[in-house]
Design brief:
Strands 1-28-27-26 form a four-stranded antiparallel beta sheet, with no helix packed on it. A four-stranded antiparallel beta sheet has the order 2-3-4-5, with no helix packed on it. The model is unreliable at about 1-35 (pLDDT under 50). The radius of gyration is 19 Å and the shape is globular. About 5% of the residues lie in helices and about 45% in strands. It has one helix at about 20-30; strands spanning about 40-45, 55, 65-70, 70-75, 80-85, 90-95, 105-110, 115-120, 125-130, 135-140, 145-150, 155-160, 165-170, 175-180, 185-190, 195-200, 205-210, 220-225, 230-235, 240-245, 250, 260-265, 270-275, 280-285, 290-300, 305-310, 315-320, 345-350. The protein has a single domain (about 20-325, about 345-350), classed as YVTN repeat-like/Quinoprotein amine dehydrogenase (Methylamine Dehydrogenase, Chain H, 7 Propeller), CATH 2.130.10. The chain has about 350 residues and is an all-beta fold.
Length: about 350
């Protein structure tokens, strides 16, 4: 996604509930829409000065993997203790896991590679050349392949889980963002530059359709309700709920600004958007075509990526404290804000 050190225009943003006294004051100032079942239960200070992108919970090992600049940190999903650090990378984005329990995959955009690691030892076992700046990743279980979506070459690299070799390169109509798989042989991906979702057949490697999803402009995060064939794409201020069979936009619930990730909790029929303004939007699926915002939870400015532990329902998001932006230059007229050293934290939401 390449949004690890986000740039913001001035907007109001929620307060982090960091201590009980502050939490009481914050709750009293939050609109009624924020009063809901989720809360920031705790935060884990991980430290480090580099940016970040996606994260994911290893379903077999209960470790939370966070892509963090030129390395990937694996922490205990219950205690927050750092258990491993995968180093020797250049610019990480995504992390996914295969269904065998053996391997994990990291998109190393800075190296134009997908890095394969052993999930028991967290040791790197292979480096697979991809397109330019591989970003979003998804594991497709029917074909047992990993799909890396290349943000600067408008393509997807398809890698065999068995051989760690590239089996196909799929051209795409524009700049790809986050992908999902339906578990039945279809892969979907946001095309950020065109405000579309593409539907890809994982067996033939063919793009079957490209669906416009307006009013959702520049979609980033994407989630899926596999049981009801619904996709959840997030853009500034709006979530587009899309029929995964037809491409029809069935609902557009309002969310916060600056989202970068979306997740879906099938057990509770809830879709989530983590928003860089400092909120988490919780959307309930009342029916496959009807959705309601049930909570807007204050988190912390910059907390725009997210992971969901499907077994427990716990959500994780990360951010840091930001200093003033450097002076604009001709090359970077809108520079990112600097990260306050050592301020990187994980927010645990339950």
């Amino acid at each position: 996604m390449t949004r690890s050190i986000p740039r913001f225009v001035p907007r109001s943003f929620g307060l982090l509930l960091a201590a009980s006294a502050i939490a009481l004051l914050a709750v009293s100032a939050i609109p009624a829409t924020a009063q809901g079942p989720y809360h920031v239960a705790t935060q884990w200070k991980i430290g480090g000065d580099s940016g970040w992108d996606y994260m994911a919970v290893n379903p077999s090992g209960k470790l939370l993997y966070i892509t963090h600049g030129n390395h990937v940190v694996a922490i205990d999903a219950k205690s927050g203790k750092v258990e491993a650090d995968i180093t020797g990378l250049k610019g990480t984005h995504g992390v996914v896991f295969d269904t065998s329990g053996k391997f994990g995959y990291i998109s190393d955009g800075g190296a134009n590679e997908v890095v394969v690691f052993n999930r028991k030892t967290n040791a790197i076992v292979a480096r697979v050349p991809a397109g330019t700046n591989p970003d979003g990743l998804v594991f497709e279980p029917v074909t047992q392949t990993v799909w890396a979506f290349n943000g600067r070459s408008n393509s997807a690299t398809v890698i065999s889980d068995a051989t760690h070799q590239v089996v196909a390169t799929v051209p795409l109509p524009g700049k790809p963002e986050f992908p999902v798989a339906d578990g039945k042989g279809s892969v979907y991906d946001n095309i950020e530059s065109l405000s579309e979702i593409v539907h890809i057949d994982a067996r033939s490697h063919q793009v079957l359709a490209a669906w416009p999803i307006k009013p959702c402009e520049g979609p980033s995060g994407l989630a899926i309700d596999k049981a009801h064939s619904r996709l959840f794409a997030v853009c500034d201020g709006v979530m587009a709920v899309v029929d995964a069979n037809t491409g029809r936009v069935v609902a557009t619930p309002k969310i916060g600004d600056g989202p970068d990730a979306a997740r879906f909790d099938a057990k509770h029929q809830l879709a989530f958007s983590s928003n860089g303004e400092g909120t988490l939007t919780v959307v309930h699926e009342d029916s496959p075509d009807s959705y309601s915002v049930v909570q807007t939870l204050p988190t912390k400015r910059g907390a725009r990526t997210m992971a969901l532990d499907e077994a427990t329902g716990t959500l994780y998001t990360v951010t840091a404290d930001f200093g003033p932006p450097p002076a604009p230059t001709a090359e970077h007229p809108h520079p990112w804000r600097s990260i306050v050293p050592g301020s990187f934290v994980v927010l645990v939401i339950k």
